[in-house]
């Protein structure tokens, strides 16, 4: 059986990022009530438990070398690759979306590496049963890349949104009034001091509303949109999503109006949530940039597929083994000569 893991490097990165960053947040979202906040310790179990699987897959695609030195080299390479990706996932929950609760970061890293060594040994042993042979890149690589682009873009936005919600600290924002059926009195807000305030959409209110405050002979517009609106704010009566910020120049009463695609939508003015970590900045980035970041693994898959297919065409339709010391699959004949028709090179 041909070893499918020798050229699936970009696919492995995409699968790892999917399984260890957005999936823990989405799983918590699907299995808990909206008012419950995710904690960091359960989220770290995902990359730690995924480490031996990644190491096993990487080790299964390593070249076969005789003796203990060959096994040690394959395990070391697999563990190093796993360590880099494990550290990236842990860094997301440490600095990008620092969720509530305490975690033993050192133990998580060391535990993941220990499991990676075990997984690498198992994967290397299993890989010995597979034929180490490079094959021409299939057009299916483009399909996998396109799917990874779409899901990566959407899940990157979800990871930023859920990460920001889980990284919000403090009490729920205080309300100062608003506009729409939810607000009472509708169209009036009373702010206690000048400064920056948040505009929240109530329930399913559209995020792209044009909100303005008018009072004391001045009109201010909510011109700092939150491109990836975090939700989960509010109370039992309704949930709020932070859609924009507005800077109010003076305390007192202001008239508030919002224009959106839904004339029945409600919006309220309140204190800005305090979001820790880089997620507090990422929610203000253009959505297109967030999508592009999530689509990068899928784009890498498509680029590698195109490169391998182009290299195969240059060698007369035969595959090229990727990686260090790669050999064109001109072939190894039964007696070990290179370049005879129909032969195959054992890739490294």
Question: Can you characterise this structure?
Answer:
The chain has about 350 residues and is an alpha+beta fold. Helices cover about 45% and strands about 15% of the residues. The protein is built from 8 helices and 12 strands. It has helices at about 10-20, 20-30, 40-60, 65-95, 105-125, 140-165, 280, 285-315, and strands spanning about 170, 175-180, 190, 195-200, 210-215, 220, 225, 235, 240-250, 250-260, 265-270, 275. Strands 2, 4, 7, 8, 9 and 11 form a 6-stranded antiparallel β-sheet that branches. A 4-stranded antiparallel β-sheet has the order 3-10-5-6, with no helix packed on it. Strands 1-12 form a two-stranded antiparallel sheet. Helix 1 (about 10-20) packs antiparallel against helix 3 (about 40-60) and helix 1 (about 10-20) runs antiparallel to helix 8. The longest helix has 30 residues, at about 65-95. Mean pLDDT is about 85; it is low at about 1-5 and about 320-348.
Annotate the secondary structure layout.
Blueprint: H1 9-20, H2 22-31, H3 40-60, H4 67-96, H5 105-127, H6 140-166, E1 168-169, E2 175-179, E3 188-191, E4 195-202, E5 210-215, E6 218-221, E7 224-225, E8 233-234, E9 239-248, E10 252-259, E11 267-270, E12 274-275, H7 279-282, H8 287-314
Antiparallel strand pairs: 1-12, 2-11, 3-10, 4-9, 4-11, 5-6, 5-10, 7-9, 8-9
């Amino acid at each position: 059986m041909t070893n499918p893991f020798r050229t699936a490097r970009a696919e492995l990165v995409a699968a790892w990022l999917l399984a260890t960053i957005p999936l823990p947040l989405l799983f918590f979202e699907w299995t808990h009530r909206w008012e419950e906040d995710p904690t960091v310790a359960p989220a770290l179990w995902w990359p730690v438990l995924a480490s031996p699987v990644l190491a096993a897959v990487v080790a299964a695609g390593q070249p076969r070398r005789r003796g203990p030195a060959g096994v040690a080299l394959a395990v070391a390479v697999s563990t190093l690759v796993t360590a880099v990706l494990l550290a990236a996932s842990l860094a997301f929950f440490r600095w990008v979306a620092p969720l509530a609760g305490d975690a033993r970061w050192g133990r998580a890293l060391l535990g993941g590496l220990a499991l990676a060594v075990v997984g690498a040994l198992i994967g290397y042993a299993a890989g010995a049963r597979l034929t180490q042979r490079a094959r021409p890149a299939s057009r299916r690589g483009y399909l996998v890349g396109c799917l990874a682009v779409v899901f990566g873009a959407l899940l990157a936005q979800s990871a930023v949104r859920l990460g920001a919600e889980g990284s919000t600290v403090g009490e729920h924002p205080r309300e100062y009034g608003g506009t729409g059926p939810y607000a009472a009195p509708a169209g009036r807000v009373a702010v206690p001091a000048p400064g920056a305030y948040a505009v929240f959409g109530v329930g399913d209110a559209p995020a792209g509303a044009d909100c303005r405050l008018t009072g004391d002979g001045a009109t201010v517009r909510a011109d700092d949109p939150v491109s990836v609106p975090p939700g989960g704010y509010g109370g039992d009566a309704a949930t709020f999503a932070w859609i924009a910020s507005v800077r109010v120049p003076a305390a007192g009463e202001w008239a508030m109006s919002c224009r959106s695609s839904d004339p029945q939508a409600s919006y309220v003015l309140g204190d800005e949530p305090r979001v820790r970590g880089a997620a507090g900045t990422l929610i203000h980035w253009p959505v297109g940039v967030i999508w592009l970041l999530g689509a990068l693994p899928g784009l890498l898959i498509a680029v590698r597929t195109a490169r391998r297919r182009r290299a195969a065409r240059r060698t007369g339709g035969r595959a090229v083994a990727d990686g260090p010391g790669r050999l064109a699959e001109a072939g190894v004949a039964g007696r070990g000569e290179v370049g005879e028709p129909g032969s195959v090179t054992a890739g490294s």
